[in-house]
C-alpha cells in the first residue's frame, strides 16, 4: 500500500505540493482563528457533585459574586476616608449594567470581612453576566480595564480573572518558547541533517502539521468546548514529531539513493520501510492520546483532541508532502551542504554497533543496573500528594495571584476559597437556619452563612482555616457531605472539586490504561510480528515513565527545582498532569521503540541472527533516535520557561521521559533484554502467525 502511495506521490508530486500549499493558506486564514474559540479552565469533572453545585448556583441563584474580586488599596488612605469611598463607588457606578449585574462592597453591606485588618484595602465582589465561567471570562475581558479607580491601586482576581490571565500567559509563553527554541533548532537541524535544504524539510512538515491541527481543532470547537492549553501540546508535538519522522525518512532516503540510480525506486523503498514505521508510529501515538478522551475533564479531553489532531496531520504530511518534496529534490536533498558528508560506517566499525555488542556481552549486568537506576529515579513518586490548579500556577507578581495572597494575608475567613453548599428544593427558612447551625458545628469550620438565595435554592458559604489543597480540607468536605440536610444538598468549591477530581481520575484511569495498552499491543504485534516484543515494550515504558514521574515529584512537589525554574511549590502535584504526561510520554516512547525495533526486525528477517540483528538495528537507528530525541528535547525544554507552573511541570516530565527513553532504555536496556530473550523475541505461535499475515502492513522485500 505504501509503495503504491509513494509511486503515486512521485508521479503527482507537484499536485501534492500544490494541494498542501492551498491547505496551508486555508489553515492560516481560517484555522488560526481557533485561538478565539478556546476556553479556560476545564480541570473539573462536569458530572461531579461539585459541578452540580456550581450549575445550581448559576441556574437558580445567578452568577456568584466571588467569580470576580477587585481589590482596591491605598498606602495613605483608609476605607473610612470619603475620598477612598468616592473613588471606588464612582468607578463602579460607571460600569455597564448589561455586563456587570451587581457589586457587593463594604459601603453597601458594612461587612468587616470586606476590609483588610489595617483598613487600607477593601475588595469588591462583582457579579458578571454569563451562564458559566467561560461566558463570564468573555464578559470580563470586555470590561476589565474599567475597574481602575483614580488614586487607588486596583488589582483583579477570582476565578474569572485568573482564567483570563492564564489564557494571556499561555499566549506569551508560546511566543517566548518559539523565540528560545527556534534559533537553537535551526543550527542543530543544519548540523544533524548536514545541509540547509534537508534541514528545512522538518520545519516545513512541522508547519503544515501545526497549521493543520489548528484547523482540525477549529472544527472541533464548533461541537464541543476545547481548552486553551491544547495549543501547547500542538505546538510542542507538531514540530517534535515532524523532526522525528523527517529525520527517519530522509536518512533512509539517502541510504536508498546510495543503493540505486533510480530516485523513484529509492523513494518507493524508503516509504515501504521507513514510511511503514512512520505510519505505525503515528497511529500508536494517536492511540495514546485517545486514552485521554475517556476522561470527562475538558482539559484532558482537549489535550487528547489536540494530540490526536497534530499526530495524525504530522503522519499524513510525512507520508505525502515529505515524499513529494523528496521526489522534487531527489539527490538535491543534500544541496547547500555545510558539513562534509559522513562516511558510512560499516556494521563492524560503527560506534552503536560496538555499544550493542558491549551491552550484549554483559546483558544481565546492564539490565539490572539500568533497572535499578530507573527505579531509583522513580522512587519519589511513591510519596506523591495530589492537588488542583490554583492561583499559585501563575508566576509570582501576577495580578490574580497577588489578589489571592493579599486576601489570605490581610483579610479574614479565606475569602476566595470557601466550601459552597447549595440546598435545592422547597426548604423553609427555619430548616435552612438549622442546617447552617449544624454546618458551623462541624469540626474545622470557622464560619458558615447564607451567601445568596434564588429559585428553590440557597447558597451557603462555609469558611475554614486549612489549606484548600490539604488532606484536612478534603476530610472536611467529606464530613459536610455526610451531614443530614433539608432537601438535596450539593457541596462544591475548590476543595470539593479536588475531591471529585481525584475520584473521577481514579475511576477512569484503569480503563484508559487498559484501552491504550491493549490497542498498542495489537498495533505492535501487527508491526513486529511478535508476542513478547510488544509486552516488553510496554514494560520498558513503565520503567521510563516511573523515572519521569519521580523527577516530577522531586522537582515540583518537593520544590527542588523551584529556584532554578522560578515557581512556587505547593507541596502537591496537580492531579491531571501525571495522566497527561503518561499519555504523551507513552506515545513518544513507542515512537522511538518502533523506530528501533522495526529496523531490528528488518535485519532479523534478513539474517535470522538475533544478536547481529540487534547490533545492526542499533547501528542503523542509534544516531537517528539520539538526534531526534535531542531536537525534541530542545522543543520541550523551551516550555519549562513558561510562567505557568503546571506547563513547566509538563515540560520537565516529558523532557526527562524523552532523554531517559532515548539513552538508558533504547541504547542499553533494549539490547540487553533482547540478548537475554534471544530467538524468543520472535516467537509466534502458528495461529498468531496466520493472524499476523492477515493484519500486518508489509514492506517490500
From TrEMBL:
Gene3D superfamilies membership: Multidrug efflux transporter AcrB transmembrane domain
Subcellular location: Cell membrane
Domain SSD intervals: 209-328
Membrane topology: Multi-pass membrane protein
Transmembrane segments: 15-38, 184-217, 229-253, 274-295, 307-329, 364-384, 508-531, 538-557, 577-598, 624-644, 650-669
Key word Cell membrane present: yes
Pfam family, one: MMPL
PROSITE patterns assigned: SSD (PS50156)
Keyword terms, alphabetized: Cell membrane, Membrane, Transmembrane, Transmembrane helix
Annotated SUPFAM superfamilies: Multidrug efflux transporter AcrB transmembrane domain (SSF82866)
Entry's family note: Belongs to the resistance-nodulation-cell division (RND) (TC 2.A.6) family. MmpL subfamily.
Protein name, per record: MMPL family transporter
Provenance organism: Actinoallomurus vinaceus
Lineage of origin: Bacteria, Bacillati, Actinomycetota, Actinomycetes, Streptosporangiales
